[in-house]
Amino acid sequence: MEIWINPACSKCRSALTVLDAEGADYTVRRYLEDVPDEKEIQEVLERLGLEPWDITRTQEAAAKELGLREWARDAASRPRWIAALAAHPKLIQRPIITADDGSAVVARSEEAVRDALGRA
């Protein structure tokens, strides 16, 4: 299992605390430093069963600068959203855990982290 984190994020630190308390075997990806490319974002979206706008932090300054709130949310616009996430990784919701069973979760709550652990 891998967890995408921003160390400055309290939700990320909380998720790591739960994983450590459960003795989980995981790797950490600091996605602001080790930025996922468009293909990786696409793969994570498939694992999550979500669309790119579902994992976009629309309150970030970059989102406002890009005018993301005005972007279409349809299949034709999907590549544009994914490109924006790859170009501006701060826009990616966090933390994201990719589970060993091929699924993934946005682990913003302890319950979501435990759900990911149950999929290991």
Automatic annotation (TrEMBL):
Domain of life: Bacteria
Keywords of this entry: Oxidoreductase
UniProt-listed PROSITE patterns: ARSC
GO molecular function, one term: arsenate reductase (glutaredoxin) activity
SUPFAM superfamilies: Thioredoxin-like (SSF52833)
Family as reported in the entry's similarity comment: Belongs to the ArsC family.
Name of the protein: Arsenate reductase family protein
